[in-house]
Structure formats: C-alpha cells, structure tokens
Write a structure and sequence with these properties.
The chain is an alpha+beta fold. 58% of the residues lie in helices and 12% in strands. The chain has ten helices and five strands; from the N terminus they run ααααααβααββαβαβ. The protein has a five-stranded mixed beta sheet with strand order 2-3-1-4-5, sandwiched between helices. Helix 2 runs antiparallel to helix 3, helix 3 packs parallel to helix 5 and helix 7 packs across helix 8. The longest helix has 36 residues.
Length: 304
C-alpha cells in the first residue's frame, strides 16, 4: 500500500530531461524559437543556397542543401510549411536552370527537372513528417498509462520536479495528493480483472475531468493515483480534494462498491525532494486507511 511501484528509480529525474549531444542541443534551440523566427531562418537558408547555386552555376551543385529548410520547416513548424518550402525550392532551382546562360535548356526540360526535384523534396519531407509523428506518439505513450489514459509515474515525477523548482523559486504553495481505491481488490476477485481495469479507467478519467489544465493526475501503480495541484494553498486544497472525492463517488455509483481514501500535503515551503513530497502524501493516505477508509487526510507542511 505504501510503495509507488514504479518501473524505475522512484521519483528520479529521467535521463530524457537532460540534453545530450550537439544534435539534441540544436533541436532544443530550434524548438524554443518563435515560429516567425523559424520561417525567417528557412527563407534565409533558401536564399543563401540559391545565391551560391547561381554564382557557381552548373559546375558545382548545392542541390542537397535545399533539403535543409524543408526538413527544418517540416519538423519544427508543420508539414504544410515543409510542403511550401519544397515547392519554393523546386521553383527556385528551376528558375536558376532557366536563366543559366552556360546551359541553355528547353522550357519543358526545366519544368521536367523542377517536377522531379519537387518529387525528391516531397519524399524527404514525408519521411521527416512521419518520423516526427512517430516520435510524438512514442513520447506520448512513454508518458501515459496505457490502461487509464492519464499520466504515468514518470510523467508525474517530471511534473513534480518542475513544481518543486517553482516552489523554491516563487514560494507559491503546491499540494500533492495520494489516492487509493477502497475495496478495489474485491472488485477484481468478484468480477475479474477486466472489470477492475474498466473501473480504474473510469476513475482516472473522472478525476482528470475535474482538474485544471495546470494540474495532473497519474496512475502510480495498481489502484493508486497521484494528483499534483499547482499553486494550491491550504485553504483551496480541501475544496479541490472534496471535488476529486465526489467525482470518484459519482463515477463508481451504481456499478462498483468502492470508495477512496486520499492523503494530501500542502507544501508552503520547499521540502527536501520530490520523493519526500510523494511519501508524505502516501503516509497520510495510509493513516486514513487505518482510521477507517473513505476519508480525506490533509496536512500543511511548512518546513518544521
């Protein structure tokens, strides 16, 4: 009941949070830029490549570099932006062929070459767009509990680290709640694990629907959930916890004979670690279980 049961070191910062390698550093740099800056950079790259291509003529080709802004736009802006730069690059390349005085080409050849190049650019941007989509799906799956559809333990730990940093920096309170479903094992034993899984999904979604966009609910293992309430003080926390408990009661009413016990701690000053935050809430939840279940145990931690 007291263990979070995560498949990695409890509440440690994930390795993915630490940028490694020059490629990842550049990726973060581009991702943090505003969209207008990315558009400008892509346009500048096309212009520079076109200028070099025009100066050197057909003797030295810079064709491979046209894919740079296409890839950049498709990955960091959108697929449509990648398509736009693919068309733009093919047209620019075709115009350079047309005005090249050293190699007089017929118009139909210029058009054919431009179309072929556009096909090459299109393939490149499709590969980039699909790779990005695959990475996004994997990233979401890696941070989502597949059974309930809410965040998993790793995602909760990362958000808790951010909340702890925010608390240290601003002094704004944060509340961490630990939820355990009462009599969940009886549902599994009597109705089977499939029904138990449906119960978990229903409860998780019910809690998620009652939270703000800045809050997070995560399944931490078995029938246990964690809730992180950003900027929630000792006066507001009991009201939110009551809403969460009510949401769970409404979600299970008429289908399952279960309830919930909630342990929650409002931190007004920064505790030693995220692990401390979670275990403090877990300890209060366990105390609530010992006192008879179906209750909310809330305390304020001010560093004493």
């Amino acid at each position: 009941m007291n263990s979070v049961g995560l498949p990695f070191s409890p509440w440690s910062r994930s390795e993915a949070a630490t940028p490694r390698g020059i490629g990842r550093t550049l990726g973060i740099m581009f991702a943090e830029q505003p969209e207008w800056a990315l558009w400008l950079e892509c346009l500048v790259i096309v212009a520079v490549v076109a200028a070099l291509d025009h100066i050197t003529g057909a003797d030295v080709t810079f064709s491979i570099f046209y894919t740079g802004p296409i890839v950049l736009a498709a990955w960091f802006i959108s697929r449509r932006a990648g398509i736009l730069f693919a068309i733009m690059s093919a047209i620019v390349w075709g115009l350079l062929d047309y005005i090249d005085t050293t190699h007089q080409l017929a118009v139909w050849i210029v058009v054919w070459n431009a179309t072929a190049r556009l096909g090459f650019f299109w393939i490149a941007l499709e590969l980039v767009a699909r790779t990005k989509a695959t990475n996004e799906r994997e990233r979401v799956l890696a941070r989502t509990d597949s059974l309930t559809g809410v965040a998993n333990g790793r995602s909760f730990a990362d958000r808790a680290h951010l909340a702890l940093s925010y608390l240290r920096r601003t002094g704004r309170p944060v509340t961490v709640a630990y939820i355990d479903l009462d009599h969940f094992k009886e549902v599994n034993d009597a109705l089977g694990h499939t029904e138990g899984d449906r119960l978990l999904h229903t409860v998780a979604q019910a809690v998620a629907m009652r939270l703000r966009a800045t809050d997070i609910v995560a399944r931490l293992g078995g029938d246990e959930f964690g809730v992180l309430l950003d900027d929630t003080d000792a006066a507001m926390a009991p009201k939110v916890l009551a809403v969460i408990s009510e949401a769970i009661d409404e979600a299970v009413d008429g289908e399952w004979s279960v309830g919930c016990t909630i342990g929650a701690v409002t931190f007004t000053v920064a505790p030693p670690s995220v692990d401390y935050m979670v275990r403090a809430a877990d300890a209060l939840m366990f105390r609530g279980k010992q006192e008879g279940r179906g209750r909310i145990v809330h305390e304020v931690w001010s560093g004493e």
